Task: inverse folding
């Protein structure tokens, strides 16, 4: 066995990955509030965080860069908000995170986890609309991912404005 083989076998996966955390979120719902604060808190604690516009190089195509960042992350924090399920990109990220069996830390922002799990409430129309556009089979992957993540114990934020967020609460 060569020396480089020995190093790669004994190095934990997190040390070989580019990102500690991939943030998945619906920009129009959360970019300027909880996502921004969470990113700043994680970053200030030396956690390597991929945030869509922070982690991509100029000229990168959105989809391949995001999917690559998911693969190159140890965990994912998924901030699920009212309009999350109306975005095929958000749902594609979520499905890929689940398929890769990443550690998922869900944040339910002004939504109920049971609505995510069952695709009810604010998610029902978005998912149904995507079924018409993208097809039932494709959306089935997304539904399965939402069901899985909706069943994970996470953090539920119902307040209109989050005044402080710290790692001690995470």
Result:
């Amino acid at each position: 066995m060569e020396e480089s083989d020995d190093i790669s076998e004994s190095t934990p996966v997190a040390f070989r990955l580019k990102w500690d955390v991939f943030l998945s979120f619906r920009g129009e719902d959360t970019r300027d509030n909880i996502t921004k604060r969470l990113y700043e808190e994680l970053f200030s604690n030396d956690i390597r965080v991929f945030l869509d516009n922070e982690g991509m190089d100029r000229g990168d195509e959105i989809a391949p860069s995001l999917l690559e960042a998911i693969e190159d992350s140890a965990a994912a924090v998924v901030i699920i908000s009212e309009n999350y399920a109306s975005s095929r990109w958000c749902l594609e990220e979520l499905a890929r995170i689940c398929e890769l069996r990443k550690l998922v830390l869900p944040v339910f922002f002004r939504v109920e986890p049971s609505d995510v799990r069952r695709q009810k409430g604010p998610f029902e129309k978005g998912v149904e609309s995507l079924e018409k556009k993208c097809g039932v089979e494709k959306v089935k992957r997304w539904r399965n991912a939402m069901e899985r993540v909706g069943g994970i114990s996470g953090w539920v934020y119902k307040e209109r404005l989050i005044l402080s967020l710290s790692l001690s609460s995470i």
Remarks:
- Residues 161-165 have pLDDT under 50 and may be disordered.
- The radius of gyration is 17 Å.
- DSSP finds nine helices and five strands in the chain.
- Residues 91 and 106 are 14 Å apart (CA to CA).
